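sorry to bug you again but im stuck and you know this stuff better than me. below you get a single protein, a line of residues and a line of whole numbers that encode the local backbone shape. mainly i need to know what kind of three dimensional shape the backbone takes. anything you notice is useful, everything is just below:

***
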Amino acid sequence: MSAVGCDEFERADFLDIAMNRQALPLFGDTNGPRPDAIIANPPYNCHEVNYIRDRKAQLIEHFGKSSALNMYALFVRAIIDFAPSGCLIGLVTHDSFLTATGHQDLREYIIKNCAIRNLHLCPTNLFLDQGADVRTCLLVLEKTGEQRDTVLVSNRPQTIAEFQRILRERQFESCNLSKILLLNPRDGSEFTIGVPNDVRALFDGRRLSDIAPCITGISTGDDKKYIREAESAEFQVPFYKNPASRRFFAAPDGYLCTNFQEIGRKVPNFMIRNKSLILQGGIACSSMGVKFGATIRPENTACGVNPNIIIEHDDKWWLLSFLNSRLCLYLTRGIIIRANMITAGYASRIPTPEFDSATKETLALLGQEGFAAAKGGASVDLIKSRIDDAVETSLGLPREVRELLASFERDPIRLS
């Protein structure tokens, strides 16, 4: 690179070069100048593209399984591999790698090979005028095996103007790396930005899976064929697919074919997971949608691939209330997985505080009230507010944390 611009440009497949870097150096010949900095905006794909599909085995061999999930992850890994020691790497990239389970290896690769200097979550509409409705981050790395003492971070603002002000005025928080990573063995080195210490501390305690099994259920492969809206002799099993925003009580999404277990034995893509638990009742949680919520799922009903907690004793009522609290919404959408798809694996990791007996009794009564109100078609907003107050008061959360939870609940799409 010259002082006025690029004096050499190689038109080629960067990933192919990265996989054969000994044969074709990226920057001139092997004895030429080495880059001081690499700045990139890696390409992103929301579904597997032909490039990855056609070269999957080769890409996994060179860059690891988690990198081959997406083009941007491949580029991030390849850029780190290419960068010489001491090189700065500036990336504007999709931020799903920060929390998604599939990208755990990539996170650990970054941590092992680079010092993280800056991590800033961008507003969700930053590239909307270019037709890109995607969550992104600014990531600045230094290729080195030693971590810095601190990382400069900023949480996701709601507007572009606010983001510009944060960058211009350098309104960053200086954090130790251990304070922005989930390092509990149950977690996967997820990056957490802007999370209060009072909330982070909950990850050191009990999780949802410690209370009851959190499972996924049936994937029919063809819902139109195996599920009907109305009950009949051939379709008798109430089926709960995804409660989404329906909290406390929800009618079934349809009726599964009565002989579903026989079909599961004969049809390869009709998959029944957790067969011994599938008809037991409990709590069904949302898997897709803006807000995480939960509803009672009665016994002798079946569930889809959304998270389902198998619990039929009295604990289900206080747990129902907690799962519908704004704290739980923040724990799931603001920390565990900053996206709108939550599987049973993510839900099983939700920190679930050990409330005192009085709080559990209060939450249980509120859960029953919420169920009755929702079943009768009444609003549950007031009940929901009482649940939030009971949860947050019991945990002693300070005013600023409660305000953060309230703000996040008002706009989880822009703030997650």
